[in-house]
Amino acid sequence: MAAIKTIFLSILIAMLMLSAVAVIYSKYQSRLLFIEVQNKEKQLDEYLVEWGRLQLELTTLTEETRVEVEARNRLMLTLPVQNEIVYIKP
User: Is the pLDDT of residue 63 over 90?
Assistant: First the structure.
């Protein structure tokens, strides 16, 4: 009877140790995933900042006055006289 109790106690201790190792491993994996989530959120914030900067740059580059200034200065274009303008209906 004492041998059965000893074997049973040994099995319970082994299961307890196995459970403790599983808890430690689970906590470790949880921390790794949390770090990865934090890195992805930081990367997302950086992308959002870059997106905002690019949107601002696009707005600046496509302003009507900027396009007109670039056309006059770099391409030497001028507006045609009123009677040379032809309107096309869609």
Answer: no
